[in-house]
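Quick question about two entries, pasted in order.
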Amino acid sequence: MYNNIGGKIKILAFIICGIGILASIISGIIVTEYDEGTGLIILFGGSVISWASSFVLYGFGKLIEDTEFIADQYRDASERKREKEVAKQRKEFNETVMRQKPAVNTGTVNTGTVNTAAQNATTQNTVNVNARPDDNEYFDFPCPLCGETLSYTKGEIRLNETLPCPECNRRFYVRDIFG
């Protein structure tokens, strides 16, 4: 109903203009039978006034159309800018990840035999071999759902399939940001 309101206002301007001209012609003809001078003034003057007054309504409709066009262009430009920022951040993150060694499964590493005077024992320590030196560095990027700037560690990004956005309270897939 309210889609393309500018175009509808412009059509309304044409309709009102047509009705005004038609009413001026009919009134002018009727009045001409009684007073020819007044009838002609109503006939031509009323038609010109109806035509000229439709300019304001038509101009308003055109103004609304142009404003909607500018707003759409602004939204499109903002979306393209946001997509470029996300792509740039995705590229930076992927380049950082690619410089690192590939992940290995978490496992148990034998640290060897410890010989002391009191005992001979074999000890094992559990080490997370998936951990990377830069896993505690923070990486900022926009939420793909609301655009709010988020900050997560590279380890959180790398090890989770989804992350929450505290602003919009929704979860998003990490692959949507970083491919």
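Here is the second entry:
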Amino acid sequence: MSDTPMHDPPRAARFTRSAETAVFRGRGVQIVEGRPPEEISFPSGRVLTVSSEVDEEAGQSEGESITVRSPTGEVELSIRFTAEGPKLRFQAAELELDATDTVRVRCEEYAVHARRRILLRSEGDVRTEAEDEVVSVAGGDAVHQARTTTIRSTRGDVFIEANDDARIHGERVKLNC
């Protein structure tokens, strides 16, 4: 048996290095103490890389990083430890979180973008709360369906605005009752 790795994934286009300097995504990054990143190759072809990086132009540390690359060289998981704190990035076919209790996210802004649809499902209640306004915009139709629906304004008016006809369908339509 040979001690050489069975698989050496292509990295030349993404990460090349000399004794003192590495080129990562087109930027010159100096390897701390002239040491190249440490790599571990897995039987699947994935490669785990641990490195410390310094920005040559600014002469400042860009922090340490842990990266997992796919057999084709794409970044699947990246953890960068920077002065602002750790930054986590991962790319996967699916992501699954399974908690026996609560999942909490605290942040300045929370943005989700889905190419096909977003589905929120609860076996209990669903509650949306905001200190400021809540805006819902649909490019197509918007439907709200429930056994009973209440629209309540605790202070101020309720406005119903339509570009065309406004219709109320019901067995009985009661106004000011």
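Reply: The chain is about 0% helix and 30% strand. Residues 37-90 form one domain. Hope that helps.
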